[in-house]
Amino acid sequence: MENYENQPVNTGDQGGLGTEVEHGSIGEESSQRLLPGDRKRPACSHCLERGVPCVYSLRRRKPGPPRGSTYERVSTRSRPPAHTSAEAQETVGQHQSRSAPSFVEPSGGASAIHHSAFAIDITLEQESHLIEHYFEIVQDANPIFSKSKFLQEYREDRCNKDLVSAIVIITAKLSGLPLLPDESDLNESIDRMLSSSLLEDDMVGDFPSLDQFRKACVLAFYEFHQFPGHQSWKRIGNLTRLGYRIGLDRLEGIRALYPDWRCLSLDEIQEWRSIWWCIYRLDTYSNLSAGTPFLVDPEFTNTSLILNSSASDPNPQELFLPAGLEDLWKLIPTIVANPETLMKNIHIISIAATRQAGLVARAFLCRRNSDIGTRLANTEKHLSTLLLALPQGWFNPRRNAFANESHEFYHGRSITVLHFLMTRFLLAIVGCGQEEGEAWFISWQKVLEICQDISATVAQWDNSFFVKVDPAISFIIFTALIFFDLHKKSATAASGLDGVSASDLRLAIEHQQNVLRLQLEQFAKFWMLPRLLCCMFICVQFLYKLAGYADLFLSIFRWIY
Questions:
Q1: Region label for 160, one of left (φ > 0), alpha (ψ between -120 and 50) or beta (otherwise)
Q2: Domain check: are 260 and 400 in the same one?
């Protein structure tokens, strides 16, 4: 840990009040061990007792959030920040910092002062290869880094070592590279990392660094898809609440209030915005799949979408996500005008649309009041407007070779298409619950149509991209598989319709099911979540034989929400 020569730092409380704290009051040897110094010069008491030189750093702090603040892992329950006086510690305890934090930045390379507790025994060349490989296989699924900027900081040894270790270990596991003689060593590192790497334990003071937040996002993303369950759901919830606590949901407001935020460059603010929208995605995935209320409320969010600056527009207009679906389409022209961030923002838009459909479905199941029909109709109307505002050919299930569309862009676009199809699917299912007779039959047919569109999109997939895209689409594939199975069982109702026999329809559905199941099995080679969904699908087919069509439909209808 680096010390700073008597530089006052405002710790900042919720009301903007602060306490002056002097840094550089202990020797470097003591500070690295998180021992409080007695401020004596030329040598503090701890260095005298240990018989080591006592050196006070002359480096002054740099304002703004740290690029790679790193500290030895010591339980925050048992020790306050070592660089504060007793009076300051008491004040910090009384006034928790939310929006005007103090930032301490390490000097030199992080490796000189901190070593990760989770590092695996590999060479520096292997580590560098895995860091670069991460951006090839995971970054597009969880875009929280600027590749060029992060790699430059890594080469300059300015990255948090725990973050580097987390990236290296996860990449090694997903890529299957034989780096260690015993794979159990890698699994043990992952278990140790997930069991002890809680963001609150990494913090010194009340404000985590950017790299600590990044590590928390990487671990939350990995655990949700690799170890789905209560623990991963709780990790995402804790991360979301901490984001709220320090003000990531209102970045544009706190930038105007606090100097520590105001002095940041636009690129640095973009990195913090990326953290918030990562939390937004994880909150959506975890709560929509668990059937629980969302923690993030866009109505009270004052953090802009991600828009990069350019030579022609060094300060791009801030773009805010509206609370409802009716105004989402208005964002599309501005998003399309920024091609560098287009895919990231359309991804956020498609998730926002899915959230709105999930809210309609939840309201229908929880209340079933008379206004659900009106709400459903309005949501479908607003969704149609949004889909029409998207760029031409956005729903093309094939890659647009004539427009020189890259494979990366195509697969990113396909992910958003699946999100929009899931949005339509949820609304169609609510329609089935609302309608009767002929209207119900139309809604039920719409469900089949959407499942067919999902299968058509998945059928064009390049299998080299399975680990490069968001594995949360496994939920969408699994849902389509289930309802294909229901339609196959009830295909007699379509006999003679448009000259298509029930047996022909069942054969077509079976082919589309095979496409989806194979897609799910490809994802299962890398992620545990689709592996579990494959097992669940087999169980559902078995339960059908026991429970029959009607009971199974009711059970799946409840599960889907």
A1: beta
A2: no
Tokens for 299?
A: 């109505």
- In terms of DSSP H, where are the helices of 117-265? 124-137, 147-155, 161-175, 183-196, 199-202, 210-226, 230-246, 251-257, 259-262
Give the whole-angstrom CA distance, residue 393 versus residue 410. 11
* Helix or strand run (H / E) with residue 366: helix 342-366
Within a domain: residue 461? yes
Summarised one tens digit per residue, pLDDT across range 191-226 is 888 886 565 555 555 678 899 899 999 999 999 999
Residues 451 and 550 in one domain: yes
CB-CB contact of 250 with 214 (8 Å): no
Which pair of tokens denotes residue 369? Answer: 């009041």
Domain carrying residue 423: 335-559
> What is the DSSP code (8-state) at residue 496?
T
DSSP3 helix / strand / coil % (the chain, rounded to 5): 60, 0, 40
Shared-domain flag, residues 520 and 379: yes
∠345-350-356 over CA atoms, to 5°? 125
* Element at 549 (helix H, strand E): helix 549-559
Residue-wise pLDDT for 378-410, tens only, equals: 999 999 999 999 999 999 999 999 989 998 899
* The token pair that represents 193 in the structure block: 């990392």
Residue 374 has pLDDT above 70, yes or no: yes
Residues, the chain: 561
Give the tens place of pLDDT for each residue, 1-15: 343 333 333 333 333
DSSP 390-444: SPTTTT-SS--TTTT--HHHHHHHHHHHHHHHHHHHHHHHHHHHH--HHHHHHHH
The residue among 280, 307, 323 that closes a domain is 280
Cα-Cα-Cα-Cα dihedral of 36, 41, 44, 50, to 10°? 160
Is 193 in contact with 165 (CB distance < 8 Å)? yes
Nearest to 308 by CA among 273, 348, 355, 353: 273
pTM above 0.90, yes or no: no
Q: How many domains does the chain have?
A: 2
Residue 460 within any structural domain of the chain: yes
**Which tokens go with 204?**
């010194």
For residue 26, give the 3-state DSSP assignment: coil
pLDDT value at 121 more than 90: no
Same domain flag for 350 and 204: no
